[in-house]
Amino acid sequence: MGEWTDKMKGKVKETAGVATGDRALWVGPHIYRAGSSTGLPDLTISQMKVEFPNPGCFAPGDIVGLRVSVTNSGQAAAGSFTVKFNDAQQTVNGLAVGETKTVFFSGYGNSTGAAITVVADPNNAVAESNEQNNSRTEQVPVPTPPLPCTATPTGTTTPGTATPTVTGTAPALTATPTPTSTGTTTSSTATPTATGTTTSSTPTPTPTSTTGSTTSLYQNAKYNFRFSLPSGAKIVSQSDNVGQVSLPIQTAGTNLLSKYIQIHVREGISPCTSPAVEHPLTTEDVTINNIPFTKQTGQGAAAGNRYDTRAYSTTFNNACISLAFILHSANTGNYTTPPPEFDMVKESAVIDATMASYNRITS
């Protein structure tokens, strides 16, 4: 030990127990920056959890997501940084000392149940006391879906009997006339006369409101592609490299929980395939509107959930563009009274219609 200490004296100078040489001093897995191990933030992923939008019940079109908690366990506030999961990034606008904030990645689709990795500050925008604990990798279970939401009746109605609705002025009755004696006494009965209009109508169910932005077209100007959306589709999120579109369910009340499109654009990927299909069941080459695609199908399961996926991938310049159509259903064994199985052919018809509209914005 004495010989080793003598050799190190000329390389690392110790001042009050802090290494101040040209290199940081490693102690276990933690990096202590030379002369700056205190007074810096320290960002960590403190929790990852898959959540449904409404834990009480599941409505058609609801999309699960990954909620990530980030904590600053350092000794100084952190400025703005991003959190990365797969190809998506969410921005956190700073963290005070000891503060925790959450970000939500909509459309979690880990059909294989494999471990996932989330990284805080992947671009190193924040100087930290420990740069080695910014990522977290673990298997995150998908919770069992809650029971389907049931429609809430409006008003009080008797089944099978419509409640009349009066429009206009309420009926008014004329006074009973007093018979006039003209030698012969006659009696008459007055008939009430309605001066308003009475109509009856069958109660109309109140439609469920849809939040978010709906549009008939999804387009990406940077990577030069677009495709039409069916009626009732909704763009959940969109950026140059990742997007999510929820699709309407044709038949409610089945075990089909949600239906959506995941869009991924990645540069320098070869072969060009969708990240949504990790273990394809089938792979084939197809051509749509003179554009070559690699078509893949796959199926995954996790915690009573099933994910049927059909993906199409094509290249444009150096970019791999993928559209993955995912049908997320529940195992009917999750229910005390199982719902009917969804019609795969009927619910998948939207895939061919959507892909038939795929094209370049400019040729």
What is the level-2 CATH architecture name of one domain? 3-Layer(aba) Sandwich
> In CATH's first tier, which class of one domain applies?
Alpha Beta
Backbone shape = globular
- Would you tell me the overall average pLDDT? 76
> Which regions contain 5 or more consecutive residues with pLDDT less than 50?
1-36, 153-214
How many individual helices? 2
The CATH topology of one domain is Protein Transport Mog1p, Chain A
Biggest sheet architecture: 7 strands, antiparallel
Report the CATH superfamily of one domain.
Answer: Mog1/PsbP, alpha/beta/alpha sandwich
**Number of E-type strands:** 22
Strand percentage: 35-45%
Order of helices and strands: HEEEEEEEEEEEEEEEEEEEEEEH
Largest sheet: spatial strand order: 16-17-18-22-21-20-19
Distance between the termini: 72 Å
Rounded to an integer in angstroms, the radius of gyration calculated over CA atoms is 32 Å
Q: Give the helix/strand class.
A: mainly beta
- Helicity, as a percent range: under 10%
